[in-house]
Amino acid sequence: MAVRTYKGKIMQGKFIVIEGGDGVGKGTIVGHLRKSFPEGALIYTREPGGTEVGEKVREILLGCAMLPATEMMLHFSYRPELFERIVLPAVRSGKHVIDERHIASTYAYQIVGRECNHLLPGFLAMEHILGEIIVPDLYIYLDLDPKIGAERLKKSGKTLDRFELEGEAFHQRVRKGYLEYFKNHRSIIVDVSRDIAPILQDVEEIVRKETGL
Ligand code: TMP
Question: pLDDT, tens digit, for every residue of 135-169?
Fold first, then answer.
């Protein structure tokens, strides 16, 4: 594995997660980062997904109705693959990783959104096991009133998955869940109700500061 060094010191890449409810424009923002940073300096991945196993589990998660406990366990199922095989080797070799969604999504959607507090001990146990592999250096949370998010999704004309099709009350709980989670995790909250240009500028600046690129 090629290791990046600076003045004899091994450089560790940063693990940065971009989070947000449905319709916040995560895709547009990540698309902008892909254009702004040199090829290969950042590695992009996503949850659910990111590996062969992860992409298959993603199809099941987005396509089949299931119990909240099944949903939560499936979300944890693809993560060891992604963290051990992609994220950890990348940051160890000095590359930075941009991950679309991470464990905060499971807290926001499965615990708070689905109103499944009884799953919390299981969630915390899994979070702890995965935390032994890697923990994000920074979460960037794209914050938006779900009412506006739903309007944006409607206007986009895209086919909605079963999470996007959930009602407003669900998405309000998801937002509340995220904000709760970020009280205890290193995060920067970005208001994405504004025009797109300053949002792109802000997120790019945050990534530049965090990575030193
Ligand atoms: P995406 O649309 O951002 O690719 O994510 C797919 C959907 O999966 C999104 O609606 C949120 C949902 N999701 C969860 O419910 N729990 C999770 O842990 C993750 C990572 C995503």
Answer: 999 999 999 999 999 999 999 999 999 999 999 99
| Residue matched to tokens 């992604």 | 82
Angle at 53 between CA 75 and CA 131, to 5 degrees: 45
Cβ-based burial of 167 (10 A; exposed 0-12, middle 13-18, buried ≥19) = exposed
Ligand 1 pocket member 113 (CB < 6 A): no
pLDDT digits (tens, 9 = 90+) for 95-124: 999 999 999 999 999 999 999 999 999 999
Distance CA 73, CA 126 (A): 9
Pocket test for ligand 1, best of 76, 109, 115 (most atoms within 8 A of CB): 109
Report the Cα–Cα distance between both ends of the chain, in Å, rounded.
21
Domains and CATH numbers, the chain: 4-211 (3.40.50.300)
The answer to whether the CB of 75 is under 6 A from ligand 1 is yes
Select from 103, 136, 96, 77 the least CA-distant residue to 13.
96
d(CA 47, CA 142): 16
